Amino acid sequence: MKKFKWMIGIIIILVIGFLGFKLAKSVHINMEQNQQLQNNQNQIAETQKKEAEAKHKFAVSIAEPSIKVYKKNHQVLPSIVVAQAIQESNWGTSALYKKANNIFGIKGHYKGQSIRYYTDEYVSNDTQTPKGAKIVREGDQKKVSVPATFRKYPSILEAIENHDRVIALNFIKKKNVSSYVEQAKMLQENGYATDPNYSKSLINLIRQYNLEKYDDKAVNG
């Protein structure tokens, strides 16, 4: 009887020890998973912080010369300039921007300087694809990537000054327009871009990133 009780006691101790080990292992695994989750969250937060800082730095690099140009000519609002720069260069990451300071995707030559680059265009589905172009997407409107010649600028300031002249001459022909919504719609109506949602995209960018604050600096000083 004593031997039986002794064996039962041993079994109980082993069971408790096994359960304790399982519990300890489970707790350890949970702690490791929580730590990994926290590390991932910290990494995501750090990445988002760096991206936000890079975006802010790019916006300011475009806003400062655009404010200067607006104060001189009173034509294209800085918020429109910055929004177009974001839209056209994908926050300054495009090869066209990096290689040619061509922030806005303006075609042609600048003081004899140019660069060959592909640009996306929207055309109707029945439009024949131009020679050398590549079809990007088909749907209600076909999107094609077309090789073209773009202006190469020696500096961002000269790119913005040239952009101001081009826009004022062809798309926003009125001076002292204080509404970025009106200017965005004028760009769309006068055929600046083939994207049917171009003006809406600009307006959304301006509102999302509070770019109208640069207009206040340019207009009110």
TrEMBL record:
<feature type="coiled-coil region">
    <location>
        <begin position="30"/>
        <end position="57"/>
    </location>
</feature>
<keyword id="KW-0175">Coiled coil</keyword>
<dbReference type="InterPro" id="IPR051056">
    <property type="entry name" value="Glycosyl_Hydrolase_73"/>
</dbReference>
<keyword id="KW-0378">Hydrolase</keyword>
<comment type="similarity">
    <text>Belongs to the glycosyl hydrolase 73 family.</text>
</comment>
<dbReference type="InterPro" id="IPR002901">
    <property type="entry name" value="MGlyc_endo_b_GlcNAc-like_dom"/>
</dbReference>
<protein>
    <submittedName>
        <fullName>Glucosaminidase domain-containing protein</fullName>
    </submittedName>
</protein>
<feature type="domain" description="Mannosyl-glycoprotein endo-beta-N-acetylglucosamidase-like">
    <location>
        <begin position="46"/>
        <end position="215"/>
    </location>
</feature>
<dbReference type="Pfam" id="PF01832">
    <property type="entry name" value="Glucosaminidase"/>
</dbReference>
